[in-house]
Amino acid sequence: MAAGTEHTQHLRLKETQMNLNADPYSSSESEDFEGQLREAQQQLEVLQHQREQLERQKCEMDDLNQQKEDFINGQIELTERLSGSVTSIDRELFELRQELEDLEQTRQSFAAHLVRIEKVEPEGWQRETFNTELNRAVCMLEQAEEEFDSAVAHFAGGRTRGVFGQPASGARSRTGEGFGANFRAGLAYNLPLLVLGTLALAILFYK
Predict the structure, then answer these.
(1) How far is Cα 100 from Cα 176, in angstroms, rounded to an integer?
(2) What is the DSSP letter of 127?
(3) Pick from 115, 127, 137: which is nearest to 182 by CA?
């Protein structure tokens, strides 16, 4: 009986030793697994954070690229508009300067004609030079009128066409009529002298 009891205790002791030996090993494996699980969870969180950060950077880059594209399109459009406007303005300024130069020359010419015409005083003409003065005055008027008509035609399509007033229709014909009237008036004015001169020559011839 004693031997059986001793054998049973020995078996129980071995079983207890096995149980004692198994518990630390099992606990270590559990702790390692939990540590790995926590580490994997942390890595997953880091990866998730990096993914979100990359997505934000991608959105920011897409937005910047869109803004750059909008700027380039606006730059091209505005450059074309400004370039076309500058060309048009340059052309307009050139035409304006040319027209102003022509207008200044025309003004100087008109002013000179005006001075010459205003100086003409038919009442002061002498009988001996009446015809000469009359012809000279008529030629002067015709020259001024021709230059005036030429200027009106030159500026007809410009911005300053209104400075010349309404075109004088039939002005040239009126000048011709005026010349004829003045010629007839001069002839009538000098007719008595011509008659007297003819009579004087006839008297001298018959003598």
Answers:
(1) 33
(2) S
(3) 137
Paired tokens of 83: 């370039």
Q: What is the DSSP letter of 191?
A: H
Cβ contact 155:102 at 8 Å: yes
Question: Rounded to an integer, what distance in angstroms lies between the CA atom of residue 195 and that of residue 186?
Answer: 14
User: How many whole angstroms separate alpha carbon 154 and alpha carbon 167?
Assistant: 13
Taking alpha carbons only, the member of 165, 152, 166, 157 closest to residue 95 is 157
pTM of the model: 0.49
Q: What's the pLDDT tens digit per position in 141-159?
A: 999 999 999 999 988 888 8
Hey, how many other C-beta atoms are within 10 angstroms of the C-beta on 56? 10
Residue 182 burial by Cβ neighbours in a 10 Å radius (0-12, 13-18, 19+): middle
Token pair, residue 100, equals 């102003």
